[in-house]
Design a protein that fits this description.
This protein is α/β, with parallel strands linked by helices and about 375 residues long. Helix content is about 40%, strand content about 20%. The radius of gyration is 20 Å and the shape is globular.
Length: about 375
């Protein structure tokens, strides 16, 4: 097992640099305790990329990401860039990275820590013990399909077009990821589509069923996306792995995140190519940027996923999850997960508490 890793650090915009800074603290502990060499190469993307070079995904930043063993991304976007041409907005950096790095599979866990059960807006008995993994196709579907754009018609009115398209090959490969990760969990996959009205997702259902023949030890069921959205609120613990398209996965994983109490708690992994990318699923939260209020836990947990999926080291992921649970059990809370009787702490303090717990666990 190698002991030297190159990590591309892309802090991005808004709270991205703040939560990335806390992730770096965690990396330093793991580097020291495990005798690793972690080479961090920080480069701008998103709005920061726009300001540095006039493009949200500068060539040098993309090349740094391509050469890395893994990519850590903070967040991108902000109101100051909303008037840019669509092709130059910060969010295009995300799509560019996913496409260029061939990151076709997005893994988004929605796991509730026992100390945060009361932070959920749902009843305790509905969410207690919740552990869902959303497997989202990431480089196809309506976000990438052609034709796309806004055109002006002969009468002067405008028409917007986006195209939902999936090839059999794209569906096959994401389905295999879904079934494979399910084998390491409870062996249950719910494939989510809208096959009753969208021919493209009718093909999705057909191909997923065909791939399932190679994974007979895993239980497969199909569910329409509108019913899935309802069931996530009604009875979320019925789900183990949710396998779905790019747009449906984007929406459902955000819904699932709120079952855990805050979107600031959930990490994600984007894999498929040679370099994996790891990021919190929250946005750049420009309203609290620079105020030492952001929750860094999703970013820190993303570091754990990086060690698990890109470095094939399960223990650091377990240590990080255990450290987060211990800090939450002590009653420490950032504003987004604050509840009565708890101790409110800032971004940097939360990172420091995690580091303290981590140092006690890493041998």
């Amino acid at each position: 097992m190698k002991n030297e890793y190159n990590i591309a650090l892309l802090p991005g915009d808004g709270i991205g640099p703040e939560v990335s800074g806390e992730a770096v603290k965690v990396l330093k502990v793991l580097e020291s305790k495990l005798g690793l060499t972690l080479k961090l190469n920080e480069v701008p993307v998103g709005g920061a990329g726009d300001e540095a070079t006039g493009h949200p995904l500068p060539d040098d930043s993309l090349e740094t990401a391509r050469k890395a063993d893994a990519v850590l991304l903070g967040a991108v976007g902000g109101p100051q860039w909303e008037n840019l041409d669509f092709s130059l907005r910060p969010e295009r950096a995300l799509l560019g990275l996913r496409s260029s790095l061939k990151l076709y599979a997005n893994l988004r866990p929605a796991k509730i820590f026992p100390a945060l059960v009361e932070a959920s807006t749902l009843k305790q008995e509905v969410v207690e013990g919740l552990d869902i993994l959303v497997v989202r196709e990431l480089t196809g579907g309506i976000y990438f399909g052609e034709p796309r754009g806004v055109e002006t018609l002969a009468d002067g009115s405008r028409k917007g077009v986006n195209t939902l398209v999936y090839s059999e090959e794209e569906i096959d490969r994401i389905a295999r990821v879904g079934f494979d990760v399910a084998r390491k969990r409870k062996k249950n996959v719910v494939s989510v589509d809208k096959a009753n009205v969208l021919e493209c997702t009718g093909l999705w259902r057909e191909v997923v069923g065909k791939v399932h023949q190679d994974f007979q030890d895993v239980v497969l069921s199909n569910m329409y996306v509108d019913n899935c959205a309802m069931q996530l609120v009604r009875n979320p613990k019925q789900f183990d792995v949710i396998l779905t398209t790019n747009m449906f996965g984007d929406i459902l994983s955000d819904e699932a995140s709120m079952l855990t109490g805050s979107i600031g708690m959930l990490p994600s992994a984007s894999v498929g190519g040679e370099t994996g990318m790891y990021e919190p699923i929250h946005g750049s939260a420009p309203d609290i940027a620079g105020k030492n209020m952001a929750n860094p836990l999703a970013m820190i947990l993303s570091v754990g996923m990086m060690f698990k999926y890109s470095f094939d080291r399960e223990e650091p992921n377990e240590w990080i999850e255990s450290a987060v649970e211990a800090v939450l059990d002590r009653g420490c809370r950032t504003l987004d997960i604050m509840s009565k009787g708890m101790k409110e702490v800032g971004t940097r303090a939360m990172g420091d508490f995690i580091v303290q717990e981590l140092e006690a666990r890493v041998k």
